[in-house]
Amino acid sequence: MSQESLSPSALATYATCPRLYDYREVQEVNAPDRTELYLNQGTIYHETVEDTCERTDRDDPPEVIHDRAMRIFDTKWDEHSSADDYESRAHREYQRAENRAAIESFFDPDGGVGIDHARRSITTECWVECEVDGRGLHGKADNVIRTDEGLHIVDYKRKTHGMLSDRTAEYLGDHLDGEAHEPKRVRNAFQTATYIEGVKNEPFYEDGMKVRFSFYGLLNKTSFESTPSGYDVSARGWPQETTEIYEDHYETIWGLIRAAHDGITNENHEPEPFNLLNEEACPGCDYQEMCADRLSTEVRR
Amino acid sequence: MSGDSDEYPSWFPVPEDDVSPEPQQRAIIDSDAYPMRVLAGAGTGKTFTMVRKIEHLINEEGVSPDRILALTFTNNAADSMREKLNAKLGAAGYDIDAYTYHSICNEILTDYAYEAGIDPDFEVATDAEKYAIVLDVLDDIEYRSVKPNVYGSDGYASGAASKLLNFIGSMKRSGITPGDIDAFLGPADRVYELADLSEHVEAIASDHLGGRSVSSVLDSFPDARADLVEERDTLGMDRIEASARDFLDRLVDLCDALEAAFEAHEAGDQELPDNAYKLPKYLLGGYASGAPKGIPDNLDLELTDHLDSFLSDCLTARDLTAGYAAYERELEKRNLIDFDGLVVETAALMESPVDEEIADRWDYVFCDEFQDTDRLQFDLVTSLVTDDNLFVVGDDDQAIYEWRGAHVANITDELDRAFAALEDEPLEENFRSRQPILDLANEAIQKLDHRQRHKTLKRVDEPAYDGDTVATVELPDEDDEDGATQLRTVVQNLLSGAAANLDEAYDPGDIALLVRKNDHATPVIEEFEDAGIPYQVAGDLTTESVGVGTVTAYLKALARPKDEVSWNRVLLMRYQLCDADLRTLNAGDDRLVDTLRETPLKEFEEHDRVAEARDHVMELLDLRDSTSLSHLYRELTDITNIEWYLSEQERRDLAQLEDVIEQYGDSAVQPPLTPAFIDSLKHYDTLFDESGSSPTSQPAVAADAVNVMTTHKSKGLDFPVVLIPQVTADEWAPSSRTYDALETSLSDGPEAAFAEDFIERDARETRRVLHVGITRAEDVLVLQGGSEDDDAVDVHPVSEMVDEILPPRIPWQPERGQLPLWADVQECLTDEAVDWTETLASETVGHVGGTINHDGEELAVEAAHDRVIDLATATLNGDLSSRAERETIQIASLTGQSTPAPSLSHSYTSLAAYEECPRSHYLDYVVNAFPDYQETAATNGSGDGVSQREIGLLFHDSAEQAANQGVSNREGWYEICDRLASQRRSEDALPAAKQCIDRYFELDLPSYEIIDAEREFELDIDGHELVGYIDAVYRTPDDELLVIDYKATERHRDLEDDKQLPIYLLACCDLYDKPVTRAGYAYVGEIGPKVETRTFNDGDLAAVRDDVTASMTRIAEFSFGRYTAGEHCQWCQHNQLACTPDSFTVGPGFKE
Q1: Whether the domain at B546-688 and the domain at B938-1116 fall into the same CATH topology
Q2: Residue A299 at interface with chain B, using a CB cutoff of 8 Å
Q3: A29 at interface of B, judged by CB pairs closer than 8 A
Q4: What catalytic activity does the UniProt entry give for this protein (chain B) (predicted)?
Q5: If you count DSSP H runs as helices and E runs as strands, how many of each does chain A have, helices first?
Q6: Residue B69: beta bridge partners?
Q7: What pLDDT is recorded for position B915?
Q8: Topology of the domain covering B546-688
Q9: Does A230 reach chain B within 8 Å, measured CB to CB?
Q10: CATH number, domain B470-539+700-739+756-835, options 3.30.70.260, 1.20.1250.20, 3.40.50.300, 3.30.70.1350
C-alpha cells in the first residue's frame, strides 16, 4: 500500500473522473483562464474570518470583534480583489457589498455566529494529517473551535447549497456502486473524514473529546433591494453539519476514499463507468474539448 | 432587348422569366395607378410582378431607370432583382437603384454626411463591436433595480451587458432615443413612488372586495371605485403618469361593468356562476396567492400584473437609459453607426431641409416585403416618395418579424392613413404549392383574429402528380419522446421513394425541415447523423460538430497560446499525436507551445507528426499578429489542410464559422485574431441568438442535403417537401416580451401601453409563422404534432362569465395566449390529407440505407460500422485473424436510395481539364474529390520565387476593384494593388503585378469606357449549364462593345483556334442589349503589352457552340475509368494515384 498522502480535493477530482485527474493533476494541462473572481473572493472571506479569529481573545466585546472584522475585510478586499477580474467597476462594487454584508452578518454584535467562532477559536488554517488502512490524507482546516464537549472544525464556504446533507447522504453509496455520479457530495464526505480524523492527531486533542465538523455558508442567502438612490444588499449564512453523516456512513465513505486513493496511486485513469461519466462529468469539464475518451467514444484505450 | 430574340439562333439562352404574366399580375403591371398596394399571398409571384412593373415603366412609359428606387430586405433579394431586370432590360437594368432598406440609408448618409452631421468616413458597427462598446459603458448604467452582475451562474445571458444590449435593441428599432425615455420616465424618485401603485390597487381590492356573497361585494363597489378614482387622480396627465392613470381608468370601467352585472344578478336579470363574488377581488389582484378556490387557475387575469410588469420595466429602463446614452456617445466617438442607427440617422436627415433634394433623386419608389418594415423604415419610405408614386407589395399573413420591431400595420392601416388615394390590387394565384397545401394554409389562417384582408390562395397550372400531399404525423404519447425517429423514417422513405403513396424519390436537397425553435432541430439532426442523411443547418441554428470544434480550437490556441486544452485538441485531432507524445508535451513547467518548439524531436515517438505540428504552429503564430483574421484563417486551412480531416457534414458545418469570421470587423481593414474575437465567439450564441435572426439575412440553400432552418429563415424560399416538427400548443406557445408596453407607450403615446394584449398579438404572429412554413411546400407537406390535453375543451363557467362582463377597454381575455395549434390543424385538414403516423413515419418501405458485404455476410450499415471499428481494434491489438484480413469490405449499395447523377456545371476551365484528362476532370469537377494529402503543403511555391498565378490573381483583382470603384489612373490602381497585396500577404508578387499595371496603362484600353468587370454568367446550352466570369467588357470610342480577357502569363493564345472568347460572346448575348462580336486578349505579362482581338460571326459562334455541346455531352458520361497520363500529371491534385507516370508520383511540393 502506498504511503502517499492525498488531499480531499485531489481525491474528489479523481472521484469526479479519473481522466480529469490525469489531465489536471498528473499532466497539469493548463485550462483557459477561468474567472478568478470567485476564487479571490474566497480568499478574502477566508482570510477575514481567520485573521479575525486569530486576533480575538475569549472575552473581547462583540462590537470590538465586529469592528475588527470589518477593518480586516476592507484591507483584504484591497489586497486580493483585482479590477481586472471584473468587467465593470459597478460589478466589483456590487460583489464587494455582498461579501461585506456576509461578514457584517457573520460578525453581527447582536447574535452573529462569528462572534462565538472568533472567541472560541483554538487555531485557524490548521494543517492536519491522518492515515487509515495505509491511506494517507491531509488537509487544512479553516477554523477549529473549542466547544463544551470537545472540538468543532468549521470549513467556510460561499454557499452550502447542493452539499452533503442528511437527505442526500444516501447518494454516497450509489456513487460507490457506480450507480450515481455525486462528486460534490463525495468531496464533502472526504473533507469531513480528513478533518475529523486528522484533528485527532493534533496536540490540542484529548482523548474522549467529541469532534464535530461543519460547513458554514457565509453567503447562503443574499438579498437585493432596489431604492431610488441605489441598491442595498444583505446576506445571511448558516452551518451545515456533517458529523453524524460521517458516523452513519463511515464504511461507505472510507470505501470511497480507498477506491479513489488506490486509483490515484496505481495510476489508473480510465474513466469508468464510462457512460455515467460521459453523461454527468463531461458537460461541465474544463478538458472536454481535448478529451480523447469523449471525442471518440468508439475508440477506447 | 427581349423582343429581339428571334434574330438569334434557336440555341441562344433566353432570360429565365420569359413567361407571360397571369391576368392578375398583368393588371398590376399595366396599371398607371399610384400609390398602389398589392397584398400578395405566398407563392403568387410578387417579386416577379414588381420586376415586370418596373420593366413596364421603363419600356412602355419611358421612365429613365435611374429614376426608380427599388427596396427589399435582403442583399440576395436586391441582387436577384437587379439580375432579373438586367436579364430583361440589358445594361439599363443595372441603372436601377435596387437597395435593401439598410443599404439605401448607408448610401444616403454617405452622400449627405455633412448635412446629417456625421463623419463621412463612418463605418457600420458589427455585432462584436457593439458588444465591446456595451462592456465599456457598463459603469454608466445607474444601478438601482438592475443588478450589476455582468455574468452569473448562466454565463452572460442574464447579466447587465445582455440586458443593456437587448434594451438598446428594443428601443432603437422603434426610433426611441435615450432622451425620449428620460423625458417619459422623469426622475427616479417618482418612478419608485409609482412602482407601488399595483400594491395600492391590490390593497383596495383586499380592503373592499372581500365580501362572501354577490350582495355584500355589490355593496362595497362604491367604496372600491372611490378609492381607485382617488388613486387615479393623484396621477399627472402625461408621460409615465398618464400611462398609469389610463390603467386605473380602465379598472374603474371594469368596476362599473362588474357592478352592473352584480346588480342585474340581484335584480334577477342575470345568472352568475358559483363563486362569482370572488371575481372582483381576484381581477384586481386582491388575493395574495393567485386564483382562489372556485376561480379557474388558467383564467390568468390578475390585471394588476400588467401594471406591475410595465412599472418594473420602467424601473429597469430608468437604470439602463444612461447606459444607452453612453453607448450612443461611444458609437459616435468611434465613428460607428449601428444597423438600427442607419435608419434612425437617415430618417432624421429626411426631416431636414435636404429632404426634397434627396427625394427628388427618384420618381418612383418600389417596396418589397413591406409587412416587415418597422416604424422608422415606414417614415423613411414615405419621405422618399414624391407625387404619390409608390408601389408596395407584401403579405400581412406572412408578417413574422413583429417580435423584432416590424410594424405590421405599416402595410395596412398606416398606408391607408398616409396615402388617401391608395389603390389596392390582390394577388392570390399561386404558382408554387399543390392545392391541398393551399387549402390547409387558407383554412388555418382563417383562425387568425384581427386579420386585416382576406386572401384565398388558388393554385394555377398545377402539374400532374400521383402521391400524398398533406400528411400528418401524431407525436408519440410518451412525454420524453420528441418524435425525431418518426421524421428520420419519413425522410428515409422520401429519399427511397419506394412507397406507393409517393410520387417520386426525392433528393435530400428537395427536403426542408423548418423548425419553430432551435431545440426542435437538435434531436432530428442527431437522427439524421445516425442514419447518414446529409443535412445543412442554416446560420442561426447551432450544432455541435467535432470537426468545427477542432478548427475553432486551433484559432483559440493561436489567440491564447496559454490555452493548453485547445493545443491538446489540435495535436490530438489534427496531428493525431499518440498519448505518449502528448504526455511529453504536457510534462514540465513550460508552456506546451514552448515545449513543442524546443524539445528535440528524438524525444518523441512519432517524430514526423510532431515536426509537422511544430512547423505549422510556428508559421501560424508568426502570421498571427500581422495579418487579418480572415487571412489567417485561410492560411490556417491552407497550411494545415485541416479540411481534409473533416467529414462532408463537418465541412458544411464549418460554413457557419466561416461566416462569423468573414463578418468580424466589417471594415476596410479587418483586425487580426485576438482573444476578443474568441470571446465574441463564446458570447455569439447567447447574445446574438435573436439578433442574428433578422429579416435582413437569408441563408444559402444546399442542393445536396436536407435543409434545416427556422421558419423565419425560410421566408421567400420553397422546397418540394417541407417537414414541420412538434406543432403543439406548448412548443409554439407565445410568450410576452420585455418592454412591450413601455415601447408601445413611447411610440404611440402613454395611453397605448394598456390598449392591447401583447400575448394575443404574439399568438397571432405564431399562426402566421405556421402559415409561412406551410406555404413553403410545393408537393409534400408533413406536419408533426399532438395535443397535450384532449379533454381541456370545456370552458369554465367563470371564464364564460368574465368573457361577457369585461368592458371593451380591458384588452385581456380569459385563458389568453392558449393556442391549440394542433387541434386547429386537424380541424382544417381536407379529405386529401393523410395520416402517416402508422405508415411512412413508423417503418421504412423498401430497402433503405443500403447494405455491405463482408466475410460472406450481408450487413446493415450500422452493423457494418461496428464491424469496421472491431476490425480496427483488432488491428491495433495485433489479433486480427488472417481470414478476416483477406476479406475485403464490399459496399454494393451503401446509399441504397436513389442516386441521381450529380448535376454538372461546366466552365471553360473544366472543359479544358476534360480535354487534358477525363479522370482529373471527374475527380475535380464531378465528385469534388479531396486533393491528395500533401505532406507539407506549406513549402509549396516558396522555393522557386513568386508564382505566376499569384501575380495574375493580384492583377485581375486590382483590375476588378478599380473598375468597380471607378478608378481609372495608374496611381489609383497601384493603391488598390498595394492594399490587396498587404491584405493577402502577397507582397512578393507586388512588383510583378505593378509591372502588369504599367503595361496595361500603355494600352488603349484605359481610355475606353469600362462597362463591366469580372462579370459572372450562366449559359444554358441544350440543357447543359456553362458558367464563368468575363474579365472585362469595354465600350470603344466607336461605340462598339469589346470583351477582354487579361493575360498576365507568358503564354500566347492563338485566336483562330480559341474557344474561350467565343464562349464569352455567347454569354454576352444574354447580358447586353447590344450585340457583342469582338473579343480578345490583353497581354500584360512579359510578352505584352499588346491587345489582340478578332471578330466572331454567328457561324463561328455556332461552331464553337456545337463543339462545346459535344464536349459537354461526352462529359455527361463521365467515369473514373478513363484517363490520359502526361506532362499535366505533375500539376494534378491526384497524382498519387496509380495512373500517374512514375516520374511524377510525388506531390508538387516535392518536385525538384
Answers
A1: no
A2: yes
A3: yes
A4: ATP + H2O = ADP + phosphate + H(+); Couples ATP hydrolysis with the unwinding of duplex DNA by translocating in the 3'-5' direction
A5: 12, 6
A6: B97, B365
A7: 81
A8: PCRA; domain 4 (1.10.486)
A9: yes
A10: 3.40.50.300
Domain edges within chain B: 2-7+31-116+360-427, 191-300, 470-539+700-739+756-835, 546-688, 851-886, 905-937+1125-1150, 938-1116
| Residues A239 and A214 sit within 8 Å (Cβ to Cβ) | yes
Say whether B565 and A287 touch across the interface (CB within 8 A): yes
- Least Cα distance to B408 among B430, B375, B376 occurs for B375
The separation between the first and the last C-alpha atoms of chain A, rounded to the nearest angstrom, is 26
B45 appears as a binding residue in the annotation: yes
Domain topology for B938-1116: Lambda Exonuclease; Chain A (3.90.320)
Expressed in angstroms, the distance from the first to the final Cα of chain B is 56
Task: Tell me which chain B residues have a C-beta less than 8 angstroms from the C-beta of A287.
Answer: 565
Which residues on chain A are in Cβ contact (under 8 Å) with B586? 27-29
Q: Residue B422: what are its φ and ψ, rounded to 5°?
A: -55, 130
Cβ distance B526 to B537 under 8 Å?
Answer: no
Evaluate the CA torsion angle B1008, B1013, B1019, B1024 in order and state its sign: positive
> Grid cell 442528511 — which residue?
A166
Q: How far apart are CA B1069 and CA B922, in angstroms?
A: 30
B738-758 in b/e form (b: 16+ CB < 10 A) is bbbbbbbbbbeebbbbbebbb
Give the integer Cα–Cα distance in Å for B1065 and B1042.
9
- A289 and B138 within 8 Å at the Cβ level: the answer is no
Q: What's the pLDDT tens digit per position in B781-825?
A: 999 998 866 545 567 888 888 888 999 899 998 877 678 889 889
Question: CB neighbours (10 Å) of residue B239?
Answer: 17
Hey, are the CB atoms on A88 and B151 less than 8 Å from each other? no
Q: What is the pLDDT of residues B11-63, one digit of tens each?
A: 333 444 456 788 889 999 999 999 999 999 999 988 889 989 998 998 888 89
Å between B1045 CA and nearest CA of chain A: 49
Taking alpha carbons only, the member of B84, B85, B46 closest to residue B65 is B85
Distance between B205 CA and the closest CA of chain A, angstroms: 26
Query: d(Cα B968, Cα B756) in Å, to the nearest integer?
Result: 59
State how far Cα B423 lies from the chain centre: 33
A94, A290, A295 member nearest B147 (Cβ):
A94
Place of cell 401603485: B197
Show the CA angle centred on residue B511, arms to residues B508 and B516, nearest 5°. Answer: 135
Query: What domains can you pick out in chain A, each with its CATH number?
Result: 5-280 (3.90.320.10)
Nearest of A273, A267, A272, A261 to residue A8 by alpha carbon: A261
Measured between beta carbons, the chain B residues lying within 8 angstroms of A289 are 549, 553, 565-566, 569
Q: A90 and B546: CB-CB below 8 Å?
A: no
Interface test with A, best of B141, B193, B565, B595 (most A CBs within 10 A): B565
Question: Does the beta carbon of A21 lie under 8 angstroms from any beta carbon of chain B?
Answer: no
Q: Architecture of domain B2-7+31-116+360-427 in CATH?
A: 3-Layer(aba) Sandwich (3.40)
Please provide residue A240's backbone torsions phi and psi, each rounded to the nearest 5 degrees. -135, 105
Burial of residue A271, with CB atoms counted within 10 A of its CB: 0-12 exposed, 13-18 middle, 19 or more buried: buried
- Taking the CA of residue B597 and the nearest CA in chain A, the distance in Å comes to 17
DSSP for B391-447, written as a single string: EEEE-GGG---GGGTB-GGGGTHHHHHH-TT-EEEEE-EESSS-HHHHHHHHHHHTT
Torsion of CA B296, B298, B299, B305, to 10 degrees: 120
Instruction: Flag whether pLDDT at B366 surpasses 80.
Output: yes
Residues above pLDDT 70, as percent of chain B: 89
Three-state DSSP state, B1142: helix
Report the residue from A29, A90, A298 with minimal CB separation from B148.
Answer: A90
